[in-house]
Amino acid sequence: MTISGRVALITGGKRIGATVARRLAEAGADVAVVYHRSRSEADETVASVGALGRQGRAWQADLSDAEACARVVSATVADLGRLDILVNMASVYRSISLNMTTAVDWDEQIAVDLRATFLCSQAAVPHMRRQGGGRIVNFSDWVAASGRPRYAGYAPYYVAKRGVIAVTEALALELAADQILVNAIAPGPIVPLSGATTQEIAAVEKETPLGRYGGEDEIARTVCFLVETDFVTGETIRVDGGRHVK
User: Fold this and answer.
1) Does the annotation count 154 as an active-site position?
2) Closest CA to 13 of 22, 4, 5
3) Where are the alpha helices (H) located in the chain, listed in sequence order?
4) Which of 63, 84, 140, 183 reaches 20 to 30 Å from 223, CA-CA?
5) What percent of the chain has pLDDT over 70?
6) pLDDT digits (tens, 9 = 90+) for 100-140
7) Pick from 189, 219, 35: nearest CA to 112
8) What mean pLDDT do residues 152-172 have?
């Protein structure tokens, strides 16, 4: 599927999401982004899309609210005329010990990372069907894609991201006849976490076979590949510099 002339919705419009938005705009797509609290970053993303000659929009939403998932999809179609590409990037990432994990913590993680991925996709499907096809790109994690947890303190996150892979595979099967291709990306060390020390960054680089962080554009290029391919569906691509083989 060509990107030019399409409309994309990205749930998450800062850092890596902003780079994905710009790359899609460079390829000729209009782009809407969803933000929760980071309005200034979302506005910057929209401005960068506009500077490339494409239409950009930013929707504020808390995607742990099920109704918000349908609302951002409807707003995109109403304002930009259609929806061809959905990139589910919204995520909660925090460490919490097993003993301290409450039902609220669990539900929030599942709601944002897993349920919103499903509900946004479900809301997008009728619009894509009317156009004869579309692309959905979900976001998992390299650890979840490895099939086993590697770090203590991330049980809800790990379970949610493993679930994203299952949702991806299930939707790929359900939607193949509609020419809606569904895939997932499992990032590894793309950019250092905010506040990471020099020692922490060096330790990650040492554990990565390619010896470095990948950078946001590696994710954006992979998203574009999964939009443009016409024969890859139900796949999870690890963009992790080889972490999973070490």
Assistant:
1) no
2) 22
3) 16-26, 39-51, 66-80, 103-109, 116-130, 142-146, 155-175, 198-207, 216-228
4) 63
5) 100
6) 999 999 999 999 999 999 999 999 999 999 999 999 999 99
7) 35
8) 96
The tokens for 71 are 């609302």
Rounded to whole angstroms, the Cα distance separating 16 from 191 reads: 9
Q: Reduced to 3 states, what is the DSSP secondary structure of residue 185? A: strand
Which of 234, 165, 244, 220 minimizes the C-alpha distance to 27? Answer: 220
Q: What does each C-alpha distance from 19 to 10, 112, 222 come to in angstroms?
A: 11, 21, 12
Q: How far is Cα 86 from Cα 137, in angstroms, rounded to an integer? A: 6
- Given the residues 93, 151, 154, 157, the one annotated as active site: 157
State the Cα–Cα distance between residues 190 and 57, nearest whole angstrom.
Answer: 26
Residue at 200: amino acid letter: E
Residue reference for tokens 């569906």? 233
Task: Evaluate if pTM is beyond 0.70.
Answer: yes
